Amino acid sequence: MPIKNLLNQRLSNAMLAAGIPADCQPVLTLSARAQFGDYQANGAMAAAKRMAKNPRALAQQIVDNLDLNGIAERVEIAGPGFINLHLSATFIAEQLQYDASTESVERPSSRVVIDYSSPNLAKQMHVGHLRSTIIGDCIARVLENRGDHVIRQNHMGDWGTQFGMLIAELERHLGTEKRGDLALNDLEKFYQQAKRHFDEDSDFADRARAYVVRLQSGDEHCLALWKQFIDTSVAHNLDIYQRINVGLTAEHVQPESAYNSQLEPIVKKLIEQGLAVDDQGAKVIFLGDLADKKGHPSVMIVRKSDNGFLYATTDLAALEYRAKTLEADRILYFIDARQALHMKQVFSAGRKAGLVTSEVSLEHHAFGTMMGSDGKPFKTRAGGTVKLADLIDEAEERAAQLIREKNPDLNDDEIIDVARKVGIGAVKYADLSKTRTTDYIFDWEAMLSFEGNTAPYLQYAYTRICSIFRRANVDFETHYAAVIIAKPEEKKLALKLLQFEEILDQVAVECYPHVLCSYLYELASAYMSFYESCPILKADVDPVDRSSRLQLSALSAKTLARGLDLLGIEVMQHM
Length: 575
Ligand code: ARG
Hints:
With about 575 residues, the chain is an alpha/beta fold. Helices cover about 55% and strands about 10% of the residues.
C-alpha cells in the first residue's frame, strides 16, 4: 500500500479515537521542508474549528492515539496544530525492498473511454492538435498501467460541409490528371486550392454544395471520392502518431461519420421526451441548469432548420455509444478549453435524455493554448498554422545538432536515434510539464536545455545511471541488494522512489500530467544530490554500501524510465 494511504489510515483511526467526527479528514501532504518531517497532517485545525476546541490540544489528542510504531521515528506538533511525521529510515528501507520485490497491487479496474487527438480530417494535422494528442495519450498510458480497461476513441472530424468542397476538388483532379493520390500528397495545398475554387468559381461552389447533400444521402460516387480523401488524411495522421510515439492506431479511429445513422433517431427521441423543441424551424434544447447570470437558459441546437445535424448532435450519439455499447465507467474528453460550454451542454442534455446514467463519470479535461514567444497563439514566421509534421522535423533537427555538439563519439545512426528521442521528448515534456489548464509559451531553447525541468535533463539522468552500471560491470535490470539508509540524501531518494505509486494514483484521478513530470524532476534531482554525497564506485566504499547504493540507483533508473514511458517519452543508454 502506498505510504500515503497507510498514514491516512492510521491518522483517521487516531482522529476517531480522539472523538473527532468521521467526516473530518487528516489532510495529509508532503512536507515542504525537511525540518517539518516527511509528511504533515493539517486536519487538526479544521476539526478543532468544527468542534470549537483548541487546535493544538486536539492535535495532541490525535498524536496520543496515533499508532505509527515501526513507521515513524518522530511525531511533532508545530505551529497552530500541524502534525509533522518523520518516517523511520528502517521502515523506508523495508518498504522499498518490499516494493521492489512484489508486483503492483491489484486494484478494482474501471472501463475508461478516452476521447483524444480527434483532429479534423479536412486539413493536415497542426500544432493545435498537439496538446489533446499527447496529454490524452499520457493519461491513457497511466490508466492502463494501473489496470484500467482503456478504450481509446479518436473522434476524427470526417464529416461536414467542407467535404463537399474537398470532393469537388478531388473530382477535378481525377478528371484532368486521373491521379488524385498525387494531389493529396500535400493536404494543406489541396485544401487551399479547394477553398480558392470555392470562393472564386460559382459553378464549383454550387457543385460543392450539391455534393454535401448527395454525400449525406449516400450517393455512391460522392462517397467513393470522400473515402479516398479520408483514407489519405487518416494515413497521414497515423504516420504522425507513430513519429511522436503516441499509441493511437487505425483501430482507435471512431470518426464522426460512424454516428451518422444514429443522428435521426436521437433527435426523434429528444423530441418525444420533450427535451428538444421547435425554434424557428430548428430543433433546440434549452438547458436551464446552464443558464447565464440573467437566467437565460443555454441553447443547444441539435438539428438545423435545413434539417442538417451538428457537431453537438454527433457528440450526443457518441456519448450514448460510449456509455451503453462500450459500457464505460468513466468517459474522459481531452479537448481545448474553448469547447467547455459545448461539453457542458452535451453532458447535461445527455444525462437528461438518459443517454448516460448518473453512475458514469463524464469529465472534460480542458487545456489552454500553445503560444509563441510573442504571447500570441503559436504560428509560423509568415503567420500560418504550424503543421505538426514540420514541427517534428524541426525538433529532430535541433536535437541532432545539440547531440552532435555534446557527444562527438556517437555515429550517424546513433545520432538519428537519440535525436528523435530527445527532440520529440523535449516537445512533449515541455507541454506535459505545464499545468494543463493554462496557456504556455513554446520555447525551443528552454525545452532542449539539459538543465532544469526538461526531458533532456531526465533522459540524461537516466543515461548517467546506465554509465555507472557499465563502469561497475553490473546489470541494473537484475541487480538486487538490501537497501541501507544512513545519509539524509539516501533517505530522501528512497522516500521519493516510494512515492511513485501515489503520484500515479493522483494522476489517474485528476488527469494532470504535470504532477508526474514534477515528481520525475524531483526524483532526478534527489538522485543527483544522493550521487554527490554518497560515493558508489570509489575504492574505499564498503561493498555492502556499494550494493545498497547500486540498488537505489537501479530503482531510480527504472522509475525514471517507467515514468517517462507513461509520458510517452523514450530513454536511451547514451546521449
Ligand atoms: N474535431 C474536434 C476539433 O478539432 C475535436 C473533437 C473532440 N471530441 C469530441 N467528442 N467533440 O475541434
